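Q: Hi! First time asking for a complex rather than a single chain. Here are the components, and I think there are two in total. Is that enough to go on?
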Amino acid sequence: MSKFYMIPNTKELNKFTENIILPLEDYSIGFSRYFCVREIKDICKTREVSIIINKLLHKNDIENIKTILKNLKNVKYFFISDLGLINLIEKEKIILYQNHIISNYDSINYYKELGMNNIVLSNELTIEELKEIRTNTTSELFLFLINHNDLMYSKRKLISSFNDYKGTTYQKTNTIIEKVSKKELIINEEQSGTLIFDSHIYSANEVIDELEDFNLIINFSHMTEEETRTILNHYKNQNLSEHIETENYFLHNKIGYKVGE
Amino acid sequence: MNKLTEVLSPAGDLERLKWALTYGADAVYIGGYDYSLRANANNFSLNEIKEAVEFAHDLNKKVYVTVNIIMHNEDLENLNEYLQNLSEAGIDAYIVSDLAVIKRIKELKLKPEIHISTQESTVNKEAVRFWKSLGVSRVVLGRECSKEDIQDILNNIDIELEVFIHGAMCTSYSGRCVLSNYVTKRDSNRGGCSQVCRFSFNMEDSDDFQICSKDLCMIDYVSELVDMNVASLKIEGRMRSLYYIATVVNAYKQIVTKKQNNTLDFETLEYYKKVLRRVSNRENSVQFYDKDPGVNEQYYTGRQEISNQDFLGIIIDYKDGYAYFEQRNNFAKGDTVEIFGPNMEPKKFIIEEFINKDNLVVSEAKHPQELLKTKVPFEVHKGDIIRIPIS
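A: Yes, that's all I need. Here is the structure of the assembled complex.
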């Protein structure tokens, strides 16, 4: 039976009834809401909390976070993207979230040998790849069930630079359209960089019956109140797409990598 | 300054590799037909890799092979055999990004060193410490590293660092972008990146715009990186031309050598800045080393790529005061040209005349790859390059 985890898009947490993952302020990027250490400590008093640290950490960040981690002893899991944190957090509390990087069972098994048993799989894998990984590893596997898929993480401030260049004042969260494919994307600039997401809500619910042995994450970031409400009502259902428009591009599209494929 | 700093060149095929090494690279990085992040470069067969290694080792230089795709399950099947073949070919190091590759190299007890690819976007000392604990001998740092990031790692971890100094940049942290997968169905982390960041986008009522970065040029900081004891200075561009590779490698090698000999002066640096500006067809900047990039480090409305016609010919032989050469771009009697090579500083002279293969005097070298000879008032060597003077 799948365990569900939710990343909230508001600080009113009562409606997020499953396990919650809170983005750590200043050390995570691309979310609708962030939580400071004090808030996380308070929430830990009443419910189980995991946090996510998905920024790549440069010199000052990696130094400063050592102090912050000392204040987060009650956190259940740390979803981490920067491998530098492996040395700073108890291994059993680590959930490796190297999006786009961990894409095969062999590397997952090696991480297990190194003491890291919990892995978030890349968001661009097909259902066949996911099942093959599941068959070939005993690690705890996590994957995003419903979210706006993140497609790029840059350290650059892409909208600010564009505004500076054009003398404009475009919002730091915006929709952009690639002209040839007409693909619509969300661009989201923050203090430490810019992320680009698919503007459609990704959902793997149509194959949820095949995902029983996975831990399933729902990230509500960049969703409206109505979308949030609908998903909260139907997130366990195979027919979620009957209630809200979703897409599943990566789930069924094997991506080639050489011309002609 | 403890060790000599390596100049590391890309090579998309055997010919480029020979040029890179001849023009001063201490090592080259190349890709095989599989498992390499430039799937559409010509790349190397196993036999070519063996030939590359022999050529490099004869010059006491090194060959690193990229096995740096992010592996999917299907990629694992023939991986052991491939890694073993590379080891038997005598390569000096694998450049890897996927833990599965490290696991296999260790299980098979293969001799080449392991270098962590920039695809892992390693930017801090703790991450480097993690890689070192796996037996990695070198980390290619993320191109987003500042001087402080690099210095902090070097101050705390005894490991070789490789730093990009020249060439194209990703808009994204390397490895963290699948725009190509989503927009064009080509896997960026398995060598198929279609560079969507260079495509055109709309936003609200804006004009079309791009989100791509200008190139990197670290010529002003090479001296500092040598002082910091960075092990390797990396040039990007496995798909670049022979002329580009020879020119860029030669420029950086000259600077590093002069720095190490304490003979680097302002004039030399200024000259090679001009050389690098001329050979690039895109604008460049220092990017992340000295600051966070801003408005001046990006392209917004397309880039003007200038077709470079500086490359005039390649010397094939020199006899009795005549240089025999193969034409590359048009030039004519009366033109001042410059010859440079791996063993000579650039020298200028004026073309008096050309003599073609029928022994006729001609005033122009205008046919692509035509074999001609011309009088040169100083000794030149096979492989030297004739170009428009840099001034």
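A: Chain A has a mean pLDDT of 96. Let me know if you'd like any chain examined more closely.
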